[in-house]
Amino acid sequence: MDPLSEVLSLLTAQGSVFAGLKAGGSWAIDFPPPDGIKFNAIVEGACWLTVDGVEKPIRLESGDCFLLSRKRTFSLCSDLSLPAIHSDEIYCHAVNGIARCGTADAFFLIGGRFAFGEEANLLFDGLPPVAVIKSGSDQASVLSWALHRLAHELATPSPGGSVVVQHLGHIMLVQVLRLYLEQEGNNMPSWLLAVSDLRIGTAIQAIHADPARSWTVEDLAQVAGVSRSTFALHFKQKAGITPLEYVSRWRMQLASRSLKANHATISSIAQKLGYDSDSAFSHAFKRIMKCSPREYREKSASVIRP
Q1: Are 176 and 143 in contact (CB under 8 A)?
Q2: Which residues does 170 contact at the CB level (< 8 Å), separation at least 6?
Q3: Which of 155, 182, 209 is the last residue in one of the domains?
Q4: Which residues make beta-bridge pairs with 39?
Q5: Beta bridge partners of 114
Q6: How confident is the model at residue 127 (pLDDT cuts 50, 70, 90)?
């Protein structure tokens, strides 16, 4: 399994919501920061999108899609000079998740929101606050189709619906990530940039295949087929962290999943990930996750229990 597929396999949608917006005339709406990542597709009409922290407004046309990957306020409007109403004012009257604003006859947007756990940080840390996919691209057509299917699954619950919704979220996310990796000029260090590099990606795949191994930089450089110094420098430039720090962080991703998903003892999880003692594992876990394994398990259980 390639690293991107493996990280996606760790993701579990903790919540999914569909929403639509019909608008017309002169209109402007402010939205709160989304809880999770938000996919949107313009089905009809056009609008302006502004996102907190993004310098320039973005013009969106019919067929365009966009993804919001950060918890930032954003606005949609027909005219940038108009005063905006808060989204609560219209969504409290939504029917089947679709709100109406103004004449509601010129603009139609559909959107889906997925809330994932902290395992998703590897992916989202590499994305810009807003990613736009223009109409006519394969990615835009897939996103639009998936959003329509999401609306259908949530509006008409059927057996297996939760699995379908989760897979739709993964499909949409993969399309956006592929587009991001294809674009030029994405040079900010990130996991996505590292895994898309042929040599660094090969080393990351080796780490994922055997996370318990006592990896050294020399080992990983040999896997990548370059010298130790070249590999260490190139890895840091692409990923933003050292190779051995990545080994530790990936282990903690796997450990956090095990702590949430099953009742295995902390000792067995530590041994499975290559730690010689519980104290060494706990120290590494606390350094990266900011709490002990036991505290993490208790906190995760309290979230699931309600």
Answers
A1: yes
A2: 8, 11
A3: 182
A4: 67, 112
A5: 16, 37
A6: confident
